[in-house]
Structure formats: structure tokens, C-alpha cells
Amino acid sequence: GVSHIYASPYLRARSGSLHGYDVADPSSLNPELGSQEDYDRMVAELQRHHMGQLVDVVPNHMGIGDPGNYRWLDVLENGPASTYASFFDINWRPSGAQPQDQMKLVVPTLGDQYGKVLENGELSVEYAGGAFKIAYYEQRLPVAPDTYPVLLEPALERLEEELGRRHEHVQELASILTAIRHLPPRRMLGAPAMDERNREKEIVKRRINALEAASAPFRAALGASLQAVNGEKGQPSSFDRLDALLDGQSYRLAFWRVAAEEINYRRFFDITELAAVRMEDP
After folding, report:
1. CB 30 within 8 A of CB 11
2. For residues 147-162, b (16+ Cβ closer than 10 Å) or e, as one string?
3. What is the mean pLDDT of residues 93-109?
4. Tens digits of per-residue pLDDT, 114-136?
5. What CA–CA distance (Å, rounded) separates 253 from 256?
6. Cα–Cα distance between 15 and 30 in angstroms, integer?
């Protein structure tokens, strides 16, 4: 008779995965396959028939570039100061890299050279829930909180002109910017500094979210700042602030064709969307 069922991976994978071997979160079930209740019913039915299950697992790599992989997104946001930086096999100081590219993760996801993609208006900044993200078609990459002033300082100037420096919304935004400037730098890798950064950056996001919900003038000022930073196609200099913002991140967006030469994280074979996990360091 049959003693077991065999299942391909059913942990949370990249959205739309047809096989499950690009696991994005090994600590949760894939919601596209079913819920926890569905799983519990399956287990109960197996037990009722005195059967077990054999599950294929993926211990050596993870699917990246998906919102479900919060570990990878945290590395993109915080670089080597991320709580999860040691999960992945990343060479933060690759030999031959330009000084400005040290301590950066190469993300070869662009369909053309970076400058062409930038000036074509294919990259933009979006805001949601207190945080900013870089949008490239369907992809979303986090913006490091210590670079938020590029976006918030112009909004503060507009608010001051409209409401005056003593208005509570102006003072709250000024206080948020002060808190951002006091975040421990991403180059500080000691546990106390990393813990402080991880704690305080989330408080900053909550404060921005609360201010955005409470203040129509701030929403308008923020919208104007984002429109300005996102530039205008046909005017190359209008993308200078966006270029500066991207330069301040812990990752460097690159043309997908350079992956073989410049990528600095270990992959599963040569699949850019599958990042190797450091199994040797449990």
C-alpha cells in the first residue's frame, strides 16, 4: 500500500512560482497553495489513514526579488548592517571594484545600461506606509532610511513656507529628519549599533506614516518632492537627485548582462533570482 505522500516544496515561494523551489520565506507556508488551516486538515487526514509525508526542501538557496523575502529586502535596505546579511554569501569588498562600489550589493536587474534606464524615466521613487522604494517596472527595492533626507528636506522647505516654522507638522518633520541624521551609519557593524539602527529606523517610518496620515499639507509637499526627484524624460539633469539617491544605497543597479563579471553574491548556478544561503554557518 501507500505509506507516504511526496510533495514538492510548499513553503512560501516567489509570487507565481510554478514549482516552489524558489523559496522566499522558509518559515511560512505558501499562501498561493493554501492556508494553515488547509495544511492542518491535510495532516489530520494523513494521520487518519496512518500515513506520513515526504517533503522536498531547498536548504541552499532562496528566491529573491520578491516582497515575500523580507530577509533579502532587509539586506538591500541596510547592507552589511542588516540583521540578515550573514544569511547570504555576499562579498562586500570584491577585488577590482571601484571605491564607490565597495560595501554594495550588485543587483543586475536592469534591461539596459544604468544611465540609459535612468534618463528614460524607467526608475522612480514611490512612497507607502512610511517608507520609500525604488520602482523598476514590477520590482520594488527599499530605500535606506538614512537617505530619506534627499526626499524629505524639500518637503520640509515647502511646509515651512506654507505653514511657518512653528507649526506642529513642520516641527514634527524637522524632528524626524533629526532622528534620521542620528541613525548609526551602515558601516557600523557592531551589535549595539546595528540593534539601534534597526529599532530607530522603524520608529522613523512609523512617524512618517503618522504625519502623512494626519497632514494634508505634508502629503502635498511629499508628492511634489517625489515628482521632482523622479525627473522628466528628455531632461537628463532632472534625474540628478534620483541618481544621487540611488548612489547612496547599499546596492548598485546594473545591466543584467554584467552579472557574470560583476555580481558579488553567490547564486544557484547562474540564476540571478536565486541567492545562495550560507548553510555552513547555521
Report:
1. yes
2. bbbbbbebbbebbbee
3. 88
4. 999 999 999 999 999 999 999 99
5. 9
6. 9
Query: Phi-psi region for residue 52, left (φ > 0), alpha (ψ -120 to 50) or beta?
Result: beta
Distance CA(257)–CA(102), nearest Å, equals 20
Residue type, 36: Q
Cell of 275: 541567492
What's the pLDDT at 110? Answer: 97
Question: What are the C-alpha distances in Å from 256 to residues 117, 263, 266, 271, 273?
Answer: 12, 10, 15, 11, 11
pTM: predicted TM-score of the whole model, two decimal places:
0.92
Q: What is the largest CA-CA distance in the chain?
A: 79
Closest to 221 (Cα-Cα) out of 185, 188, 173: 173
Per-residue pLDDT tens over the stretch 38-91 = 999 999 999 999 999 999 999 999 999 889 999 999 999 999 999 999 999 999
Residue 166: which region, alpha, beta or left (left: phi > 0; alpha: psi -120 to 50)? alpha
Which amino acid makes up residue 141?
A: L
Which carries the bigger pLDDT value, residue 124 or residue 1? 124
What's the chain's Rg over C-alpha atoms? 22
User: Cell digits for 282?
Assistant: 547555521
